Amino acid sequence: MDYIKITETPSKHDHLEQMDTTDILGAMNREDKTVAEAVSLAIPQITQLVDALAERFRKGGRLFYIGAGTSGRLGILDASEIPPTYGMPHTRVVGLIAGGDIAIRKSVEHAEDDGAQAWKDLMEHDINSNDVLVGIAASGTTPYVLGGIADAKKNGLLTAGITNNPGSPLARASDIPIEVNVGPEFVTGSTRMKSGTSQKLVLNMISTALMIKIGRVKGNKMVNMQLSNTKLVDRGTRYVMEGLGVDYEEAERLLKKHGSVKATLENGKEKAN
After folding, report:
1. pTM for the full predicted model
2. Catalytic residues, which ones?
């Protein structure tokens, strides 16, 4: 191993069981404050990925996330939020986890150790060279993720890797390595903490910037969101009020008529009437 496995290095804090609750929480919070700064150092690589994704998306390409454990769950979470938030089909951003859907809630023993399974899982979605694969692994050594990245590259896909160990196998294997060094965890080796938080931040940046780049946002509004509950209808109505300068009742009527904020704003007040 020619790199330092930072995710496994001892915590800067010790005798945690002897600390009172306020001290535990304060120390955790101070550690968490360092995460955003670590993520900021990876913005050039995240930019490269987003721009490449936007180009492929406009041609019908898709984004796939693969991971195990916390990393896999975070990828699935990000993917699952794209349809309601931006009105995209659920097939355009897809999250896969080692061990399958059951692993979202329960640990599946040794699922992450199968280096051949990721490509099998991806093939169920007819993955092809127009798509982009992002592997997520705090350690950067997860066989499921490394195998998926290797097979994707063999088949002509662009690959990226999100890892918290700079210089790790995942970073070296990926076309675009996104390395976020958050330092040792508060509880030694508990990568669901700072590492997981950094992954969530990076995933937010990737998918949100991508949706903006491909036109799913107007101004600063989610004009393509699904109107799937009362809260979202209310939010959409207020967007229409602001965009068209009408009162709440008229905005709600127009929104329900046209089915989305974007369509309502494009039709305009006069046309909508």
Report:
1. 0.93
2. 81, 112
